[in-house]
Amino acid sequence: MSNQRVFDMIFAKVYPMYVQKAEKKGRTKAEVDQCIYWLTGYDKKGLEKQLSSEASFEMFFAQAPKINPNVSLIKGVVCGVRVEEIDNPLMQKIRYLDKLIDELARGKSMEKILRC
Prior knowledge:
single chain; mainly alpha; Helicase, Ruva Protein, domain 3; two-stranded antiparallel ribbon; 7 helices; 2 strands; globular
């Protein structure tokens, strides 16, 4: 899949899949939201606005209040690629979110996921 195709995906259509992945492993929607808040700086109201506006991933991250300064602590592989080695800044942010959701679904503690 091309990068632009991923960037154009509607975040509100992918979000339920994040929640489903987490819930399948005994985690909660609130924990998914907490990961999103930590990464992007959105709060509950801001996230709800993004979901209702059907923003693309590109717009979702462009409008994010503040990307967490500790994102560089997120390391590992998503879709066969090391997140810390991704050249495109937007794709890297998308994969950071994927990685956080993966860690959540794998049972990591929120403290470790949020690099506290």
